[in-house]
Amino acid sequence: MNQTPNLDPGTLIATPVDVRSSPLIAHRPIPIDAVSLNDPIWSPRIRINRQRTIPGQYRFLEDTGRLDNFRRVAGGCDGEFSGLYFNDSDVYKWLEAASWALAQASDEEREEITQLIDTAIGIVASAQHDDGYLDTYFSCERESLRWSNLKDCHELYCAGHLIQAAVAHARTTGKASLLDIATRFADLICEVFGPVSDGKREQTDGHPVIEMALVELYRLTGNRQYLDTARFFIDVRGRGSIGGDPYHQDATPLREQREMVGHAVRAVYLNAGAADLLAEERDPALRSALDAMWRNQVSRRSYVSGGIGSRWEGEAFGADYELPNARAYTESCAAIGSIMWAWRMMSLAAEDNTRWADAIEHTLYNALLPGLSLDGEHYFYQNPLEDDGHHQRQPWFGCACCPPNIARMLAMLPGMVATVTTDRSVGEADVSHDTVWLHLLAQGEVRVDLPAGGSIVFEVRTRYPWYGEIEIEVTELVDAGNLTLQVRIPGWAEGASGEVNGESLSSNETAAGQYATLTRSWSVGDRIKLSLPMRIRRLEAHPRVTENAGRIALMRGPMLYCIEAAGNPRGDVRDLVLGNARDLHPGWRPEMLGGCVVISGTAELDPPDAGWSNMLYREVGEGRAGSTESVAMQAIPYHLWANRERGQITVWLRRSQS
Amino acid sequence: MNQTPNLDPGTLIATPVDVRSSPLIAHRPIPIDAVSLNDPIWSPRIRINRQRTIPGQYRFLEDTGRLDNFRRVAGGCDGEFSGLYFNDSDVYKWLEAASWALAQASDEEREEITQLIDTAIGIVASAQHDDGYLDTYFSCERESLRWSNLKDCHELYCAGHLIQAAVAHARTTGKASLLDIATRFADLICEVFGPVSDGKREQTDGHPVIEMALVELYRLTGNRQYLDTARFFIDVRGRGSIGGDPYHQDATPLREQREMVGHAVRAVYLNAGAADLLAEERDPALRSALDAMWRNQVSRRSYVSGGIGSRWEGEAFGADYELPNARAYTESCAAIGSIMWAWRMMSLAAEDNTRWADAIEHTLYNALLPGLSLDGEHYFYQNPLEDDGHHQRQPWFGCACCPPNIARMLAMLPGMVATVTTDRSVGEADVSHDTVWLHLLAQGEVRVDLPAGGSIVFEVRTRYPWYGEIEIEVTELVDAGNLTLQVRIPGWAEGASGEVNGESLSSNETAAGQYATLTRSWSVGDRIKLSLPMRIRRLEAHPRVTENAGRIALMRGPMLYCIEAAGNPRGDVRDLVLGNARDLHPGWRPEMLGGCVVISGTAELDPPDAGWSNMLYREVGEGRAGSTESVAMQAIPYHLWANRERGQITVWLRRSQS
């Protein structure tokens, strides 16, 4: 039964994107278990993720019939399939999240999670057909309908998540129990799908993810058919095989596409898979398409939170500059997909420019994190930037894509802190030079095994993102030799300063938006200090973002802020006018919302109907400006909204009265 | 077969809302054929409606299988039902439009339209079941499913449109051929639907319209069961009989509702039916609910065009102040429903306040009229206030509610020009005093038969809405005696002036937002002159309408303006900054778009990326303002957009550069 090549435990590392052997890559990952975070934001969330979220979600899989759908197929098809046709994918995403979580689990946690994983794998295995096919919706009474509606029915989407889960499980446990299931299904998919000239089905799935999954399965197994089939799925897209519409990412061949359109999650998953392909094969047309699409996303179709997806209808991107706040869709899953895509793009080249890591960090704090409650057991599907308090996090959803997606992203996150690159052109021709890149600034310990052998361990000590002082100390060195550390100075950190062992860095070396390049023959005890200015920044939006005209958003460091009714009892937060208030100041509030820095100041309250008497439109100059009143205002980090009593919230604040 | 009371031709008048015998009404209608318009806007549209639109739509009914669905039922159920399950309603709406059109048709037109009507009635009749039931979707293979899904399947919606068509046909032809069909079906509905305590089905339809229809059938026939059943359908709503959701107007009992929610067309159709009920029965709770809902609509949930429905998802109202421009849904049918509702509300009392007629006129010009092309054969379903030029009028739709709805509204429109009220408290106790109200200001002839006997004919001479000079001359008088003319001075017309037979009216008499009250013993040849100031008005939106912050819209008289790429070749119209430009001036352009007044002036062009370098967000003060350039700008009446080459259009213009 075991058709999978034996896994060599020596080659396995716990990382979702293992590009160590990919020919066209610069950044190589370090494994999740090489990073131990101890920061104020991620560390508690990741612990809660292992201890509460993952066991809690398993119970939902059980209680909502998602596991029963597998048991039903195994047990002779009694009763009815329950829930949505793609519910299998929730089981797989949970399996992936749980598998990555193992990489950082304590013994006790590992035992609990392993038991749940093994039980789930047993249940999943029991529903696999003899030919490898596995989809509980298209089993039993719908068995003859297999592959009959690829556009709508998510068969390859579910398969993709199964494969991703299997890769995670293999990499963190060395076991092939889930991988066997996934490769058997993947083999069937490779047999069925491909060019019609090869006698295959020349068609793809309405919801991408199979692309990323197959490339990673290729990386794990070395079996080239998976890469070939991934490329096929990218090539066939945009050629009308599933109806040709933008929603399903089928309107334009990817290499010709320049704008982000249609269903946001589908779009970024597809692009992440395409970026995976670029690590394996030269494809300039694909590269320029992805570059153009990224530019379009960040300069025309992203929220100030980093969230994407402007439209409820179709969970979709809107037109350029179409960014409504209260009706923002900004699905948590879309933020996750955007991070996956950016990570893969960043890995392709050793750019001394922090744009990718800035986007990743910004999206993590301001678009992914809002999706999760402080207790780790409630989720947002949509993440609006303005709301009247009705929108609240839920423990689960009928369409439950987001909860396990957030769980897997948190479990993967330590693996995004640092990477390593090797440059063979530096120094003597045949001596490689290693560079360790610190992308995410967070307190913890990072261990990097260097490609050339040797290793370095450093400790990061900081209260970032609440404060800008960061100390990095080298604590262990083994055969590290000459080594470059590249430490990210975020694009917003103009005026950053730093020193190494007491010696100041030049302002060029700590320029914002670049990595501080520190090449030394390092010694244990060496200390790097960085100081990032954490002043409050007032952002305005491009004039074509009509919804934000005359409004400003507050940021401090990487954190976007919002104001909600809870801390602003006077009036409605939408009526606060910030004017040119210069008294905004940050303050650490250890007791509030798990501990955070709030921004306080004075605003003018412009009563909503002052001068308007219930009119909706009036002639300019017709009404008198109402008299305003100075009130204290308090802004909190946006990701913490809706953790207190319900009420109006808004990210964008009025700048002036008119 | 003929179960309908014989129609007394002497009592029939061609009006959609015949409240002459309604006990709780002030305004009584004058028939469509009593008004002969000769104005620059409606007159040509109404003529084209008779000559091209109505015959053209009949061909669509035929070509798209809508008539074949009836033939199929009659012919033994061969083949398949084609199209949407409520396609019968398009046939009925067309029959209604064609019937009202007869009221103003020339002999030749009447012959053509009558032939089409009679053919259609024959086809419809052939599909009626023996028990009176008539719905081609729920016939043949779906016969056993009758009334099985009232929430979604529009059976009573189709019935309502059948009844409305039958009333129109009876009132304009005196024939009972369609009325017989409708009353047989209505009788069945009255038998089936009602309180469960009467052994009936206590449920309503997902899409209102049956309420208006049954009240009007009661008015035509005098059969009280139709009124009782209409009241039942209003009472049962909001009690969960069809799922309890706002989309289907079932979340709240109508008398408790205060806000406009859910599907916009459903909402205003229901409220129009409820207002019909108020003309027949005292119901203070219903009246306050409708008043509150109207206030909510006009002061929180209407576009500056008068359009309603902010959301594409659910074709629905949004939250207060949620009024996106490019993504406005503003369905043409919703504007029509809003006019129907306002007309009925206006009729209830003799208010010396033009708010209802202002709303009707404003919605006609700026929310209904944009739905129709100049050629009268292309329609908008949605009417956005900003667009990139992709949104274009179509000759027909799969869901074709709007085209025949626009056709019936145009055919009805002359009947909305004037009304008559009778006040028994003026003068001697038992001598009534008649007042003729002129609501819509448009060139033409109006003949009013007075309730007390006698009649008056007056001619309106004006180039309104392009110019503000209006002359009204009494041209015939029969036993008119002492009579009041109330002539509407629109709310925007501050500074209006007037005279009667050369004698000036006081400024109180011509105050804006009231009717000029002119009581005289009139003589043939008497002349009223009014002068409404037509200055260009710059409107701003309530600060909570975030999408319009810092923007202004231009109006002149009743006309909303927009700018489109066609007349503004330099730059993108969204980048034009109007500033405090004082050189805006109107100009008559006979050759343009059928003849219209354009507004010209100078704006500053602020290039879209000036100071932004492809950024979407930046720190306030970070970028330099780009240098602007003065360019000529030209605004056209909003209803005329998309009649030239495609391009960007916008109603709201930037007020300043920042």
Chart the SSEs and their pairings.
The structure is a homodimer of 658-residue chains.
Chain A: E1 28-29, E2 35-37, H1 42-63, H2 66-74, H3 88-102, H4 107-126, H5 150-153, H6 155-173, H7 177-192, H8 210-221, H9 224-236, H10 264-280, H11 284-300, H12 332-348, H13 355-368, E3 386-387, H14 402-412, E4 418-423, E5 433-438, E6 444-449, E7 455-462, E8 469-478, E9 482-489, E10 497-500, E11 503-504, E12 514-521, E13 527-531, E14 536-541, E15 551-556, E16 559-564, E17 576-577, E18 585-589, E19 596-605, E20 617-619, E21 629-637, E22 649-650, E23 653-654
Parallel strand pairs in A: 5-9
Antiparallel strand pairs in A: 1-4, 2-6, 3-22, 4-5, 6-7, 7-8, 8-13, 9-12, 10-11, 10-13, 14-15, 15-16, 15-23, 16-21, 16-22, 17-19, 18-19, 19-21
Helix pairs in contact in A: 1-3, 1-4, 1-14, 2-4, 3-4, 3-6, 3-14, 6-7, 6-8, 7-9, 8-9, 8-10, 9-10, 10-12, 12-13
Question: Can you describe this structure?
Answer:
Two copies of one chain form a homodimer. Chain A has 658 residues and is α+β, with helices and mostly antiparallel strands. In chain A, 31% of the residues lie in helices and 18% in strands. Chain A has 14 helices and 23 strands. Chain A has helices at 42-63, 66-74, 88-102, 107-126, 150-153, 155-173, 177-192, 210-221, 224-236, 264-280, 284-300, 332-348, 355-368, 402-412, and strands at 28-29, 35-37, 386-387, 418-423, 433-438, 444-449, 455-462, 469-478, 482-489, 497-500, 503-504, 514-521, 527-531, 536-541, 551-556, 559-564, 576-577, 585-589, 596-605, 617-619, 629-637, 649-650, 653-654. In chain A, the strands form three sheets. In chain A, strands 3, 14, 15, 16, 17, 18, 19, 21, 22 and 23 form a ten-stranded antiparallel beta sheet that branches. A seven-stranded antiparallel beta sheet of chain A has the order 2-6-7-8-13-10-11, with no helix packed on it. In chain A, strand 6 and strand 7 form a beta hairpin. The longest helix of chain A has 22 residues, at 42-63. Chain A is globular. The model of chain A has no long low-confidence stretch (mean pLDDT 94). Chains A and B meet through helix 11, strand 14, strand 15 and strand 20 of A and helix 11, strand 14, strand 15 and strand 20 of B. Strand 14 (536-541) of chain A pairs antiparallel with strand 20 of chain B.
